[in-house]
Amino acid sequence: MYRAKAYSATSATSPLASTTIARRDATEHDVEIEILYCGICHSDLHQVRNEWSGVMPTVYPCVPGHEIVGRVSKVGPAVKFKAGDLAAVGCMVDSDGTCPECRAGLEQFCPNPTFTYNFPDKHLGGVTYGGYSESVVVDERFVLRVPDNLDLAGAAPLLCAGITTYSPMRHWGVTAGKKVGVVGLGGLGHMGVKFAHALGAHVVVFTTSPGKKDDAVRLGADEVVISRNTGEMGKHTGSFDFILDAVSADHDIGSYIQLLRRDGNITLVGAPEKPLAVAAFGLIMGRRSLSGSPIGGIAETQEMLDFCGAHGFGADVEVIPIQKVNEAYERLVKADVKYRFSIDMASLRGE
Ligand code: NAP
Ligand code: ZN
């Protein structure tokens, strides 16, 4: 066991602050990674503030962070990675490996997963600690390869925002000729736009922020709708094959269900604190469907990273030192991020 520098929250109302945490020494199948960048996901904020208390209550101290990119610093004897390799870790660090979901490569649905933070730690006891830290030790089955043409600060957010938007688009058949909506131009949403565009779809962004219009087009949107304008919304009634809803707060999902064509699907990836109201007739008329989707499996995460490498894009990031993390959280609540904060972990090593 060794101690690593990290930032943690000690309660739902306290800011993140500097601390040290225990990490296990790399065992046979483990990879120790020196973390270079860690993205800030809105889920980190939900979790730190215990906004998901009904589903996954936060255990304090909480070290968030599940968009991790770094360099391998040590490996166990049975590991394929070697010291110096680029490596990445997302939202999961373990699963049972034997259930039908794991055998199908869908570890995100394993009934016995270990998430990267706030989950029982099988090795050290207590809970797992995430990527707002100088290093992490992970079983190699959950370590991804980073294409070497990608900027590392922009690659980190792919590990959650990337896979969470890529996976449902692949599942629901987003291809050329499809009309696809993306609701909420934040960390997830802006990756959703990039993927839908790269997959050849006609992409419409729905935003509450008129100031993001030009960026939406630059990111790949064919049209941008200010969602508070009911006239603009109405023009799209009954026309979408697929809509990805990546909003972090309460909003009127019914107004988007109306925009689906027959058999169209809206997938929720956003996970607001409170339940959303859904009117039955919105779904009944048109046989529309509403579903959700969590991250993606390990093989699909690698596929997504390779897709990004082949297309030469990562996330659009604002790189910050870890000392600005609390300020970044306040800006996240105000939808004021373009379009993902990525923490430069050199700032933590320097403390
Ligand atoms: P984010 O960067 O904060 O983006 C959320 C966006 O939602 C904002 O930029 C804003 O876009 C829109 N928004 C915020 N408040 C709103 C409101 N009151 N009404 C309407 N729109 C609003 O967050 P994120 O990191 O992308 O995460 C989005 C959600 O996905 C979070 O709830 C997060 O926990 C969840 N998540 C789920 C998974 C999964 O596996 N399913 C994975 C990661 C994250 P505009 O300014 O364009 O309106
Ligand atoms: Zn996330």
What key attributes describe this structure?
binds zinc ion; binds NADP nicotinamide-adenine-dinucleotide phosphate; 351 residues; 25% helix; six-stranded mixed β-sheet; 12 helices; alpha/beta; globular
Describe the structure.
Strand 10, helix 6 and strand 11 form a beta-alpha-beta unit. The chain is 25% helix and 26% strand. It contains twelve helices and 16 strands. The strands form four sheets. Strands 3, 4, 5, 8, 15 and 16 form a six-stranded mixed beta sheet that branches. A six-stranded parallel beta sheet has the order 11-10-9-12-13-14, covered by helices on one side. The chain has 351 residues and is α/β, with parallel strands linked by helices. Bound molecules: NADP nicotinamide-adenine-dinucleotide phosphate and zinc ion (ZN). NADP nicotinamide-adenine-dinucleotide phosphate binds next to helix 1, helix 4 and helix 5.
List the helices and strands and how they pair.
Elements: E1 2-8, E2 17-23, E3 30-40, H1 42-48, E4 68-75, E5 86-89, E6 92-94, H2 100-103, E7 114-115, E8 135-139, H3 152-155, H4 161-171, E9 179-183, H5 187-198, E10 202-207, H6 213-219, E11 223-226, H7 230-234, E12 240-245, H8 254-257, E13 260-268, H9 280-284, E14 289-292, H10 298-311, E15 317-321, H11 325-333, E16 340-344, H12 346-349
Parallel strand pairs: 9-10, 9-12, 10-11, 12-13, 13-14, 15-16
Antiparallel strand pairs: 1-2, 3-4, 3-8, 3-16, 4-5, 6-7
Helix pairs in contact: 4-5, 4-10
